[in-house]
Design goal:
The complex is a heterodimer. Chain A has helices spanning 2-32, 39-57, 82-87, 89-97, 99-121, 131-153, 172-175, 187-209, 211-221, 223-228, 233-255, 265-280, 285-302, 305-310, 314-329, and strands spanning 60-69, 75-81, 169-171, 184-186. By secondary structure, chain A is mainly α. Chain A has a single domain, classed as Orthogonal Bundle (ABC transporter involved in vitamin B12 uptake, BtuC). Chain A is globular and about 75 Å long. The relative contact order of chain A is 0.19. Chain B has two domains: 43-178 and 318-390, Response regulator (Rossmann fold), CATH 3.40.50; 181-313, Rossmann fold, CATH 3.40.50. In chain B, helix 2 links the parallel strand 1 and strand 2. Chain B is built from twelve helices and 17 strands. The longest helix of chain B has 25 residues, at 8-32. Chain B is α/β, with parallel strands linked by helices. The chains are: A mainly alpha, B alpha/beta. The interface between A and B is large, with 47 and 47 residues.
Chain lengths: 343, 448
């Protein structure tokens, strides 16, 4: 029982990332009708916002220490971050330590601006083009973005740890009545799950309870009629592109302590996230979230030794297998709407 | 109006003459060259085939730096690096056999098909007489096979799978880097000494040739010390999050986790294992331990603080204090501003060893060069006394057991050497079952 619960928890944090990326993908597809293969790259750019802020905060001056030698036998250059010099060693170290949470604030304006520029500069020219063209151009953009990141940050993963207060793990099993050490779960993964729920809730609340959101939803349902009412729906959809970019970026920022970011991390999530969108139902926001968590949990279960001993290699194909089953039984996905991508 | 008179006999005659004409250059070429890409009097071209894109691009870039340094030293530039400390004295700064050394580069992308294509291009279009490089065993084995067919020497770069000089060994292929068996043989006594002989190990293994052979090697060596292997779980190479593979470890009864992962897989699996509190756990009355059998300093940096205190093995480390290592670190560090990686070291050595073999053989003919390398004993290149064994073209030398450093003084100061395992402890017979047994054969040398 505890092993199953642990895999559910693992699936929830994995599913959180899928759900956040798929939510952004669906927002863009539902509003603009664009299949955005560069969405994984936005997730990666968000992660590198955290890396960049961490580097900015760690920006240091060097002092030669004659008592220590470097690898060539020269006096060692000891680096001291400016923030430690300005605010004192303890406060300065704390600021650097909290780089990832601070990067949430840092990344939002960057990602919104990035999304806005991407939509106005490139994507809008492909609204009326076939989906194949959109996929090609956005996939090309994703490759360009990851190569740019690799040029500046290198190909190796870059450690971007969580604040000391949230490192390590806690005994989740004890909290819910299991034996000691039965279910150990990392603090940061729990934070990631809660954070993703807040972001997903925030996006839904924005669409559900604001006038702006109501217009966007109306536009998603019938763009032409909303336009005929004299509402500039294109502008709102552009803003939604920025919101979707910010959601992907935030997912990337918070993911950095879980796995050290590298230039390729967007591509690692992209294909899976598209499967999530298709399984959830093209254009369905609740469907994307539901499918994200569902596939995350099933993927975790498939990695269990008991399951793998019955069906070897199931962990490598489970998501695609589920996608085939869902699409055979419910061709529009779990919560897909009639008419979407069916013309 | 023109009239053409084509007869059957005339057509046959014309075709025969045209065919002979087309074949003529090939006949002359094959008659003029005794072997593939025989160099002229002025220069000789080497082909450096490394990952310039893809996940191992940083390691490939470090290999390229070392290759360029080696070429500079062979041509008489710089401070000569390890040439003065090398036990053989045939390298005098005048290139190889009096020819200036030039090079071309290819991008393996850490994909076998791309690596073979770039090696083929360097051989056929650029006239490379030797191919070297790589950061993956799958790629090394693929390119080694191609070089055997093409009739050029392959000096492997970073490849750690037993298969490279085991069941997939080739007469034209040579490996300086150590292998999975050697990692196990070097690590196991240190692990037994540090953690005791009554241990239960759980292996997570990358699902491809390198992972399989390393897991087999580590399991055999540790079981010989009294450890029990409780499980071995194969993980897809494309995995990015290992939490679902690590969670079952917690309740498996194991008290050691062995991560047979490299590169990004290693960084992520180690990070995940530490996140799940494995290092703080106590199982069977003992502290839970994690082992990373193959370390790469470049990659270990990606795992940050998580590598602290974790044992593994490596082919070479820049902190070694022998004359060869010091000379190489000084030469590389002065030119590039940071210490070389083990990948840089092995490819630098391979380039010098190839050049020296050509000089000793007095020819670039791959069969002559192969004979000069096979069974050759040397020293002064940073690994003590080394043998290039004739039976399988594997280098035998001391192996380093390292651990993540607790108090690093710089971003390069990630690992520290715990023990230098002597060569005798990591040797094995050429027909060892893990290396293809009696059926494994080098085949015959191919000169093209």
């Amino acid at each position: 029982m505890d092993a199953i619960l642990l895999q559910v928890l693992n699936g929830l944090d994995k599913g959180s990332a899928y759900a956040l990326i798929a939510l952004g993908l669906t927002l863009i597809f539902g509003t603009l009708g664009v299949v955005n293969f560069a969405h994984g790259a936005l997730f990666m750019i968000g992660a590198f916002c955290a890396v960049t802020l961490s580097r900015i905060l760690s920006f240091s001056f060097e002092v030669l220490d004659e008592t220590q030698k470097d690898f060539l036998g020269n006096p060692l250059k000891v680096k001291t971050p400016y923030v430690e010099s300005w605010f004192g060693p303890e406060v300065g170290a704390s600021i650097i330590d909290w780089a990832v949470p601070l990067a949430i604030l840092f990344s939002i304006p960057i990602m919104v601006a990035f999304g806005f520029i991407m939509e106005r500069g490139l994507i809008k020219h492909f609204y009326k083009r076939p989906h194949a063209d959109q996929i090609l151009v956005t996939f090309g953009l994703a490759i360009v973005l990851q190569e740019v990141i690799k040029y500046f940050y290198g190909a190796n993963p870059i450690p971007t740890p969580a604040p000391d207060a949230f490192k390590g793990s806690f005994d989740f099993g004890l909290l819910i009545g299991f034996a000691e050490n039965a279910i150990i779960y990392p603090y940061w993964r729990m934070i990631y799950f809660v954070f993703s729920l807040l972001v997903i809730g925030g996006v839904f609340a924005f669409l559900q309870f604001t006038t702006f959101g109501m217009v966007v939803r109306a536009g998603m349902a019938d763009r032409e009629t909303v336009g005929l009412l004299g509402i500039n729906i294109d502008r709102r959809f552009t803003i939604m592109f920025g919101v979707a970019a910010a959601v992907a970026g935030l997912a990337g920022v918070m993911y950095t302590p879980i796995n050290s970011p590298n230039y390729h991390m967007g591509m690692d999530f992209l294909v899976l996230s598209f499967v999530v969108v298709v399984v959830g139902g093209m254009g369905s926001l609740p469907g994307a979230v539901l499918a994200g968590f569902m596939l995350g949990i099933l993927e975790s279960f498939a990695s269990m030794n008991q399951i793998k001993s019955i069906i070897p290699g199931i962990d490598q194909i489970i998501i695609y297998l589920i996608a085939i089953i869902i699409l055979l039984t419910r061709p529009r996905g779990l919560m897909g709407r009639k008419g979407v991508m069916e013309e | 109006m023109s009239k053409t008179n084509i007869t059957r006999r005339g057509l046959l005659k014309t075709s025969a003459v045209a065919g002979a004409g087309l074949a003529l250059p090939t006949i002359f070429t094959s008659g003029a060259s005794a072997y593939t890409n025989e160099p002229g009097a002025g220069s000789v071209t080497l082909g450096f085939n490394v990952p310039q894109t893809g996940p191992y691009a940083d390691e490939g870039a470090d290999e390229l730096r070392a290759y360029e340094l080696a070429v500079e030293h062979l041509n008489g530039g710089g401070d000569g690096g390890m040439i003065p400390t090398f036990s053989s004295k045939t390298l005098d700064g005048t290139g190889i056999l009096g020819r200036k050394v030039e090079f071309v580069t290819g991008d393996t992308q850490t994909k076998s098909d791309a690596a073979r294509a770039s090696a083929k291009s360097m051989i056929e279009k650029d006239g490379a007489i030797m191919i070297t490089g790589g950061s993956s065993s799958g790629v090394a084995i693929a390119v080694q096979g191609l070089c055997q067919e093409a009739g050029v020497i392959f000096m492997a770069g970073l490849t750690h799978s037993n298969d490279t000089t085991g069941k997939d060994r080739k007469a034209n292929g040579f490996r300086h880097f150590f292998n999975g068996y050697m990692s196990g043989a070097a690590l196991a006594p240190v692990l037994a000494n540090r953690y005791g002989t009554d241990r239960k190990a759980y292996h997570l293994t990358a699902d491809y040739t390198w992972g399989w052979t390393q897991q087999e090697s580590i399991a055999n060596s540790t079981e010989a010390m009294g450890w029990e292997t409780v499980n071995n779980v194969l993980t897809p190479l494309a995995s990015t999050d290992f939490s679902s593979y690590i969670a079952p470890v917690l309740n498996s009864g194991a008290d050691v986790l062995v991560l047979n992962h490299y590169g990004g897989n290693m960084v992520n699996s180690l990070t995940n294992a530490v996140q799940f509190g494995l290092r703080d756990k106590e199982v069977n009355g003992k502290n839970f331990e994690i082992v990373v059998p193959l370390y790469s300093r470049l990659m270990a940096r990606g795992a940050g603080e998580n590598v602290k205190g974790i044992l593994g093995s490596t082919n070479w480390h820049w902190s070694l204090q022998d004359e060869g290592s010091k000379a190489f670190v000084k030469s590389f560090g002065t030119k590039y501003g940071f210490p070389p990686s083990q990948a840089a070291h092995t490819v630098y050595c391979q380039t010098l060893l190839y050049a020296d073999a050509c000089n000793r053989a007095g020819t670039f003919n791959p069969c002559g060069v192969g004979e000069a390398l096979a069974g050759y004993e040397f020293s002064g290149l940073g690994n003590g006394d080394v043998l290039y064994r004739a039976d399988d073209h594997q280098c035998f030398k001391d192996v380093l057991v390292v651990q993540g450093k607790e108090n690093p003084t710089s971003e390069f100061d990630v690992l520290e050497v715990v023990e230098v395992t002597p060569r005798a402890q990591v040797e094995y017979p050429p027909n060892h079952p893990m290396f293809g047994g009696d059926e494994a054969s080098l085949g015959t040398c191919n000169a093209g």
